[in-house]
Each structure stands twice: as structure tokens, then as C-alpha cells.
Amino acid sequence: MSPVLAIANATVLHVNDTPASLYLGTFSLRQAGYRMLEAVTGEEALQVAFDSRPDVIVLDVKLPDMSGYDVCRRLKEDPRTREISIIHTSATFITAEKKVAGLRAGADVYLTQPFDPEELIATVNSVLRLRRVEREALANAARLEEADRKKDEFLAMLAHELRNPLAAISVAVQMLGQKDSNGLSEADARRRDIIERQVSHLRHLVDDLLDVSRITRGKYALRRGRLDLNTVLQHSLAAARPVMEERGLVLREARPTAPCWVDGDRTRLEQVFTNLLDNAAKYSPEGGIVTVGAHVSEDSRVRVSVQDTGIGLRPEDQEHIFELFAQLDAGLARSRGGLGIGLTLVRHLVTEHGGHVEVFSEGPGQGSTFTITLPLLTDAARPEATVERIESRRREWRILLVDDNPDAREGLSEMLQLWGHTVAVASDGPEALAMATPGTYDVIILDIGLPGLDGYQVAQELSGRVASDAHLIALTGYGTPEDRARSEEAGFDLHLVKPVELVEIGRVLAQLGPVKRGTRRRSQMKSA
């Protein structure tokens, strides 16, 4: 059906208590192909509208029982009729005040009687076209929202499916580094380091892929706290240095000797600098120099710059480099790969921290400089320095490890036993429930994506059964804020996202204290 036919087949309710005006308007619209209904009072108009749901109402403002403004207002307040288009008509002179009153009541157009039949038909056609466009836009918005929801579900499932094998590989490689570093040849040690670096790179890609959807839509929250930006930079540089060396780059740094205290999310700020360093490495040829500098300005801000001697940026590239999926077409950039989302994350995260990011390049072949500016906490007292000594605090726990991935289960179990813990394993929820009798385990490390009975259901059962004497730790590929909130509701004490560094698992186990009856505080669940 064409748009013209669709409009012509619409239903119009004509409301007017003047017989001549009612006849002329109804006749003209019926001749144009509309299905016509009539009413001569406000109450009759309301009843017909509620019963028949016309597409358009041509409504006179002066009726014997109530004003057309009141009829319009009641129609717009009722969910059954609020979407009907309304054309006000009046046989008296229309002042600006009357037009405003009609539009405020919900009318779409205001016509003066007597009107030309062609004018009436054209006005009805116009409001119908507008309403059709609005409905199509709403339908498209609903479809887009549904598609966006399905995309988020797909990305969450994709991350889980990717993180499970990455976790198994990561644990195995880290175990090689801890157990057999002296027994490996120099060549095998290099191969192990390559695998470890690439697993880390894959993990960052998975995290960025998920984060860009949440961050650009505002579905994330910063976990802010007072921290020294020097420490954040130190961690980011330590992670970037092996990659720089692998690509034949020189990494230089110049950081302030005094702490730079900011109010920020440590994980997110490390993500900012890691992405900038990765970007510099990707766009720099072998032998290039990457320089990281930081200084405190007089306006109580800290400025961190990441400068490279790479391929540089054209002016037009500098304008769009922070846009989603923006990538240069240069062969070097394509050879290094990437998703084109890292700098988008940088911009959003820096902005959320109250700062800004800018880029400068003198042109192609002249390198690039990215500068991050963040506000300092000038009135914050320096926290007392503490040194975490995990080894001295380590206790031997009785641990139940539940994971349906045999490689990940075997690798982590072996590592936990090397640390002196007693470990039992289960491959699914029913097996875990059968094994986890009260008093048997101190710690239960539980995967969420289990077949059949998922980890949330298992945790809910276990939290009531062993809440007095066991810590429940989620070790999972699901890492969205919604996943963490659901873990807390299910009874988990901690939520760790795969793949987790073994040193992080060791730190978590070292920080656990004995669980005493009545002291379990789910509202303070930690995550990593």
C-alpha cells in the first residue's frame, strides 16, 4: 500500500455543532477517501473517540457542552487516545492566545472557519504524514534498543567464551614462569614470554570491546579513591615495557619525584595510559622512541604526555582520532591491528575524571603527542606508606575449586597446591553441592558459567549452607557491573574476572581472614 493510499484510508472524526460546517467538512474529507465519523457535542466526541480510535479528529473549539480545549486535553490524558492527531477549528477570529491554548492542550494544528475544502484535506494529510513518521521513528528506536540489548548480551557471552580459554592459557604460562624458569632454555623462556604478552594483549582487547559499549552509553561507574598518579604510571609502564622491547622501541620516562594525588579509579586510569602506550607502540616503526613525561602545573593540575616518533597525524586525522572505530589507513597501523576503540575509551574515561585529552602532531612522519590533564587533590593528606607482604601473611586454606573447563581447573588447582593449599575440584554445580558440606572448606572458588545449574544458583545454595565457615569467590568470564551486582545478591564475597593474574589470586587468598558466624558482609563485596 502506498503512503497516499494509507493516508486516504485513515479514519477521521469530525466534531462540530453547526450543521452546515459539519456537513461540508465531512463531505470534503469523505470525497478525499477518508472513513468519516461525526459528533456534535464534546461528550459524544469523547465516546466515539474511545470506542473507534480514529486517526485524526477535526475538533471545533466551541461546543454546546464543553470547550474543544477541554475535549482535547481529556483525549491527550487518556492512554487510549493520546496518540490521535487533533486539528482545532474555530469560526471566530483566532488570536495568538487561542492558538497557544489549543497547542498546549495537545492540538497539532489550528484552522479558521470557513476554510477551503482543499486546505482541510491538505491539513489532514499533513498531520497524518507527520504522525506516521513519528510512529516509524518510535518503532525504529524500539528496534534499535532491542538490537542494542542483544548486542550487549552477545558481547557479554563472547567475553565469557573468550576469557575461559584465555584463563587456562594464562595460568599455564604463569606456572611455567614460577616453576620452571631455571629449567627452560633461553629460547623456550622467550617463547613463554611471547605467549604471556599475547595473552595479556588479548585480554585487553576483550576488556576494551566490552568497555566501549558500556562507557559510551554511560553504563559504568568509576570506583574512585585517592591515589598517586605516579604509581598508576609506573604500573602502566611496567606492562608496556616488554611490548616496546619486542617491537624494537626505546621507552623513556620522566616523572615527578613527589606524589601526584588525584581522585580516580586506579583500574580505569591504568587503562587510559596502557591504551596510549599501546597506541604509540602500534604507530611507531622499529627503532622509534616513546617518551612518557609528567609534570605538575601552577593551576593544580597534573599533565601526562605520551610522545612518539612514529608516523604522525595529518590535521584532519587529529580532528577525528578520538571517534569510535577511527583508524589511520597507513600500512604500518593496519599491520599492527587493533579495534579502533582505544582512544575513544581514553577520551571518555579522562572526561569522567574531570580532565581532558588532546593530541598534537606536526604532520605525517613527525610523530604524535597525546596529553592528559587531570585535577590534583591539593588538600589531600598523603596516606601512610604501607608495603604489602603477601608471603608473610599466606595461610594454607582448604579450597574447593569449581570450573567446567578442565584445562583451567587443572592449571589453577596445581598452582594452588604448589602454594601449600589443600585443593578439591568439581566440574559442575551438583558435584560442588554434594562436596561442600559445612566445615569441609575454607574457600570455595566458583565459576559462574557452569552447565545446567549455574554459579549463581550454586552460590545461593552454598551461602546458606556454608556461610559461617567458607569464603565464596566468583572466578568467571562475566565481568559487567550487572554481573558483579548479581554475584553480590547470590552471596559471593569477591568477584574475579578471568583471566586473573596468579599474583592477584595469591594476594586475594593472603588477605582473607577467618569467616566467623554472623560476620559475613555481602554489601562490602570486593571485585578485581
UniProtKB/TrEMBL annotation:
It comes from the Bacteria. InterPro entries: CheY-like_superfamily, HATPase_C_sf, HATPase_dom, His_kinase_dom, HisK_dim/P_dom, HisK_dim/P_sf, Sig_transdc_His_kin-like_C, Sig_transdc_resp-reg_receiver. It catalyses: ATP + protein L-histidine = ADP + protein N-phospho-L-histidine. One of its GO terms (molecular function) is phosphorelay sensor kinase activity. It is an enzyme of class 2 (transferase). The modification 4-aspartylphosphate is found at residues 60, 447. Its EC number is 2.7.13.3. Keywords: Kinase, Phosphoprotein, Transferase. Residues 11-128, 398-513 form the Response regulatory domain. This is histidine kinase.
